[in-house]
Specification:
With 183 residues, this protein is mainly α. Helices cover 77% and strands 0% of the residues. Keywords: Membrane, Transmembrane, Transmembrane helix.
Length: 183
Amino acid sequence: MLPQAVVRELRAMQRLGLRPWLLEWGKENLVRPARDMTRRQLVVSASVGIWGGIFPIPPCTMPATLFCIMFYSAGVPRLQRFNVPMASVAVVINELMLPLDLLMMPGFMLLGQTAYNKLTDSELDCHVSSQLLEDLQEQPVETFKRFSTGFGLGILVWAAAAPLVLGQIRVLGALSKFAPGGR
């Protein structure tokens, strides 16, 4: 933002007051650009937000979503890259995915454990159970330490699937323009 634009915004805030200025700024810089998004942009940003939102460690879904945004935007034409409104939608949807993330976390851990056992021909058992979520609420640090191998394997499963899922999202975004109605 240029210094003149900052000065103009500060004067507008002083003239209108903080709350009305924030509402106007939000409409101008967040709501209007989101309404101007195409169907492809909306489908892609929502899908990336969902995938990043189910990262196996609930407090770390935001970095995972930002990683997905950068990974998706790498090597594609400028028109298909994420812009600010798309990233905003992805981040909001990422935050809304917490209940599903908590449900899927043990599944990622079990998939990682199964893959590890098959690849190494061993019998690793992380003891993933329904008690895990309760333990995470009551004693988060101790639970992360106790289940660190399971969480690590869950992260590896998610990371291994990420390029495939992001490729499918790219295809879904391309196909969304053929859906009837809308833009």
